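G.,

No rush on this.
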Amino acid sequence: MTSPTAHLRGAHRHAPWVSLRCAGGHAASDPALWRCPDCEAPWELATSPEFDPQAIDTTTWSLWRYAAMLPAVPPITLGEGGTPLVRVAVPEGEFLAKLEFLSPTGSYKDRGTAVVVSHLRALGIEEAVEDSSGNAGASLAAYAAAAGVRARVFVPAHAGAGKKRQMAEMGAEVVEVAGGRGAAAVACRQDTGAAAYASHCWNPLFLSGQSTCAWEIWEQLGGSVPDAVVCPVGQGNLFLGLARGFATLRRAGLVAAVPRMYAVQSAACAPVAQAWRAGWPQPVAVDEGVTIAEGILTSRPVRGDEILRVLRHTGGAAVSVADDEVRAAQRHLRGAGLSVEPTSAVAVAALPLLRDQLAGAEVVVPLTGSGLKTL
């Protein structure tokens, strides 16, 4: 029997090299480097295909229907993407929910991980390391297993037991680190050895994968985009991937304007919301704090300046919510038949705060992680 993804094999016959540069103009001498060694800035793709609706592969409903617009790599796929867009009404408000928690490993991270691991495998890399609070590590473990790549994941010792089990059961080595999310990142970068650092925070290919979510929304809305998107933000990878994806649609002349983008953080750790209120060009580091929304516990996002630029350029805003508001939103989502982890409920919890700004708007909220992970 032919594999459902067999038609993807050989879809990219280009060399696996992806050209990278930083904001300072430095070019990467090695495509496996995780950041610019000269200025320590994150890499960006030096060139990227523009969006072409005629190039969509309509024979598949996964993110690889947009293969022509993604970096040229043979895909490692578990069927990621193609998530439903459904209308939801809860006490916090009515919106269209993009059900990213139905991804293969139960979180939106699979879009970015699929593209990153495909690239690493094309380079012949046999081992990858990552630091994660849970979902990114679980995603890397699964895609590394599919690619035949060894995975090692550094996690805070207090990370959710279910997510750590998910990583281990997929064959990843789980390294628990005392301290917070930042401590896990430091420990990981100090102990990569010969492995590639497959960081979802730093790798621009991860953002390429996340952009496919915007393109799916455009298709699901019949060739249009919503008025606004409200998104939980830690590192802001999904937020930025969506923003970049919508921007490519506008550059292609397919939409007249991009949605207003709203970033939502936990009040326990809200560097973006703090910088937004103060009018700063970039966030400053804050204490990680303690929150049930552990997936967005980020003291200073790598691309925080870009997040703030997107907020300004799209007419959006950044807000923060307390854990009690998140619990209520999570409970109301369950009442609507949607089981999500607390981090996913953060954006829904913010809807009452944004009620005046969103009045009459068509709003999309991505629900990012499955509630099954926290049972």
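When you get to it, here's the other one too:
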Amino acid sequence: MALQPPRITMLRMPAELPRPGESVTVSCEASSELPELTLLYWLENGFFVESLHPDGTVREGTVQEEPQGSELALHRDLHFSSFDSRHLHTNFTCVVLSPLGVDTRELQWPSPALGPVTERSGGLG
């Protein structure tokens, strides 16, 4: 049987939109049949997170590995020390990569709860 490419199995994130200033963690889980040759990492707008945040305000956790039959489950967190509204409009992508292929999953924040409408329409009154 041929080896399968790695795949992202789950992206865990808060059920509600984080508030500015909150500490937030998002988790990415993947599986691979070539664990010793597999990388799991996060990108921000196509760049490595550490290169954009040398201060550590957004940082990756360490990769955790757990055997699952013939495969290995990999897990890596993305930590926001102080969530900022600009993060809502930033493209964060979890990537799993091995010689067998690549899989990606984009982070999609929950939609903000609809509050009362405060704008007035431009209609005639």
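The radius of gyration is 18 Å. The chain has one domain: 7-106.

Enjoy the weekend,
O.
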